[in-house]
Queue: 4 jobs
Job 1
Amino acid sequence: MNKEQALSKFKELEEKLSHYRSILALVQWDMETGAPKQGVPYMASAMGSLSTEVFRIMTSEEMGECLQVLTEETNKAEWDLRTSASLREAKRSYEQSKKIPEKLYSEFVVLTANAQSIWAEAKKTDNYSLYEPTLQRIIEINREFTQCYGYHEHPYDALLDLYEPGYTVGVLDPLFSNLKDRTLSLLKRIQASLNKPREDIFGQGFDKQKQKEFCYHLLPKLGFNLEAGVLGESAHPFATGISLRDVRITTRYIDDVRSSVLSVIHETGHALYEQGIDPELEGTFLRDGASMGIHESQSRFLENMVGRSREFWTSLYPDLQKTFLGELQQVSLEDFYRSLNIVEPSLIRTEADELTYNLHIMIRYELEKAMIQGDINAKDLPEIWNSKMREYLGVVPPTNAEGVLQDIHWSFGEFGYFPSYTLGNLYSAQIYHVIQQQIPEFHQLLTQGNLLPIREWLREQIHQYGKTYTPGELIEKISGEKLNADYLIQYFEEKFSKVYQIEPAK
């Protein structure tokens, strides 16, 4: 096979894999948003078959031969940036997949497809024992995966690398420890403040149909293209890209309007990333975010730096008041803004305040490390979960549904994913620092309700590239420096010292 033949065959395989993954994403969406319960086992099996076919193509002799020819030193210099990046991502995926036995991979796909409905039922009925055997097998398979992938120091490193290349336990432990210490220090000063926001605003039982109407009103103002996207409902809010012109998000509606609105803003951050990727990357290995952490930076940036800002609500709050006259007519914008940014340790990660959110991630990070190392098993999780919640956040879940069962991620088999949330927060603060320098009128645009220039800046600097750059390359391209955790702490200090009228740390 010469290089021209290899490139043609590679692009053919690349497009086929992209088509299959789009179909899998569509089935996944259906299973989480409306599929009848009795139909789940069959569709889980069907997903297993198609996922196994994807696995076979990715690890096929054809793919291996193409990559061998195209990545030879004598050929590397001939490729443009995108072709080189696509080959880089394909080779990485090929080498990882090649290490996993097909039978084990097929079992894993079917297991996790079924696990999602089992988890949902266990959460709904607060019955952890229903979910425990399935979760235990997912843990065991992930342990097997780490042995297949290989690692230098900690088995968890092999899983971290799937989501955020370049990060290891050795890097994250000191990073998270420092962030935890500085977060707890600020939290202590906040809790001592006598100038606390109102706590009664969001406990009034907001009508769910009105919440839905407002969320649809909100989407285009955020820049979400409703002709290339859908808003649905699910037990756990999520975003998925079927294609670059079919990006779907969900939220859930409870009595507290903050939950649905902030979830929609968060998931729209993911969706804008997907909708903003260069259409020429459709059907390639680059049609995705640079990493889970970079993807999360876009949702956290939109949710927190934009969606929790006073300026953002200056233009939108009158619309929310009109939607909920009885609940908000007598609530001032300032009181609403401060209440939206209440810092109060809570049970649920997705509803956590901006400051203590990372403590929720650290709990999951420590549990995952211990599970993958073999120190704890599924049966141990409820007790250890509650113990860590008490230690980190000072609260204890009264039920497993509000505790160990609250997240869907382990049902997907996604061990190594959770740290991406905190990395996303770190990236988002660094991006926020840069965008304010490059768009001096940033806050004025928010006040005017004009997010288009902000979306276009993100599209130009981040979204369009997909996976063309690695996360490290991308953050350095944007900011001129490597990931710097100080920006997040500075942002927290500046914001919450004003909300709570306390002295920022020196």
Job 2
Amino acid sequence: MALKIIAREKDDVVVLDLDGRIVLGEESGTFRETVKGLLAEGKKKIVLNMSNVTQIDSSGLGTLVAAHSSAKAAGASLRLCNLGARFNELLQVTKLYTVFDVSETEADAVRDLAKAASAS
């Protein structure tokens, strides 16, 4: 199943609803281009809603890390939310939990980004 990405704005935060697999190939490329496009538009707060991600491989993890690095380099913030037990465990095992900002729910992620922006 190809990765479907639905972008929507909540306050000044862009929420990307990811649906499908983040794996080597077209899926990773589509995701990468979507994030690059948002950063090029000057979007500074991005939430990745992972609730409907069915599979992620090592290439997909690399794509997420690259998106995080690109966002940071552009002065933007990227948060993950709605990870689910398997993806949560994967981040723990790979030690990527220390790399990403993670929120339990989408509402928490949006609030945390708004809070971070007002603190800086």
Job 3
Amino acid sequence: MSTKYGYPLDKWNKAKEEMRQILVEIARVRGRIPYSELVSKIQTIRLEPESYGLAAMLGEISSEEDAAGHGMLSVIVVHKYGDMQPGPGFFQLAKDLGRDTSDILKCWVDEFNKVHGYWGRW
């Protein structure tokens, strides 16, 4: 049986779709969610807020959503305290996907507006 980050692939994929749906619902109301709150809502598997598994799942979701023209959906997942922005993994993925990350605040706001603009229509 194939696994990802220690989870059976079928559970991983189910949790990823569960997470995607949660993020879509939040994007529809033009909101954002802290990492810790997001992982507490996932029922299929248990993820930790600062785990490699969570980062990978968010990366997969963002890459897939971006390829579909919806923007990087994980832009709405933020630190609960402090800067209240996505973590460094988001900005690395943004760079990998061709975004200009020389000004991370501008990158974040532009992507945030793109995602909210797309999902806010539904």
Job 4
Amino acid sequence: MSLTSGSAKAAGIRDAEIEHTIRTYVSPLLRAAGIDEQDFGLHVVNDKALNAFVARGQRIFVTTGLLMAAERPSQIIGVMAHEIGHITGGHLARLEGALDDARTQALIGQLVGIALGVLSKDGGVGAASSAAGTGVAIKNLMKFTRTQERSADQVAVNLLDQTRTSARGLLEFFELLQDQELLVRSRQDDYVVTHPLTRNRLEFVRNHVAKSPYSDNKLPTVLQAMHDRMVAKLKGFINPPSQTLYEFKADDPSVMARYARAVAYFRDSRLNLALPIIDGLIAEAPDDAYFHELRGQILFENGKVKDALPSYQKAVDLRPRQPLLRVGLAHAQIELGQKDLIPVALRNLQQAIRYDRYMPLSWRLAATAYGRNGDLGMSALALAEHNLLSGRNLDAEGQANKAQRLLKANTPGWLRAQDIANTAERARKKAQNR
């Protein structure tokens, strides 16, 4: 797991297993909605509040608080169906127009700030506590009208029916928030503030559950297992180790409990306790890429880079299309400092970028690999990409101009550097004129 620590407003988590789990939930809904999965962005915000919202086009942001509060995957699926309803209804664009009319563009600035904060920063390994101020900013983000909420609810239950999925999860989530409407604003969870929950909306979903032929359908048991592991991993990385070890007792033999304890011991620098647990999990599930990834991370973070390499490699071999796993492997290969591993690391990074080009860390590592290979033009171009994604427009412009001087004119790399320089210059000037 890695944390993209944004400004004071937001912190984003990147983790291959967690993203895979949520995308597994969402994929049938996206297909039913006619949304290409490659055009869909998923971002996990490290905040204890219960919230999810749409921003910057077809991007859904969901908080760790919501993920950890959900007892069943059906609850998250219901929330995601609702958010997809906002995407298909074009509600974000309408909201921006309303804000323009009301001359409250500052709210959009906060929206973009949080979205960029989650998208832009590099991820180091490990997780950190929630950044202060996220909840306050999110509360001012998207005060959707009740009409838009009802519309999104309608789309949600339609999508759930199309995928033959029970809407009980969505109803359970609404019931969880029902009492929030009675609290003063400062004590309400963010989801209630940004998605006003009314009695009519609750009754609408309840009536749908009563009438839908799919309300008693059960999700595959594997989804619950994936959910339990996701929650265990999040709690292990986000909560204090002492809290995790208290919640997941040493005599609990479940996969969920052992997974959480392994992470807690790792974060508590007790390698002698973390490794035997993860080794036991691997012995039971040798083809589980995410167990191997965690083993690699534990070793890497404790300075045992050479020992971490086989675990990272095994994870990639098992799931070669997971960009985050390839970035982890490439990072270890580069850190090992062996000249023969640099071209291999670069190939892994190029593959990772092919699957997800919006990961700043992959570009920063690529810059290092290109530099060690003596390709200074491509190194400058990779740094330009890194800085552009990180919101450092002046640095992006400078590196892009350097790349243009070093690369052959009119080659794909040179043309891309030109595009970055122009984009960064426009963004920088726009920011100066605000």
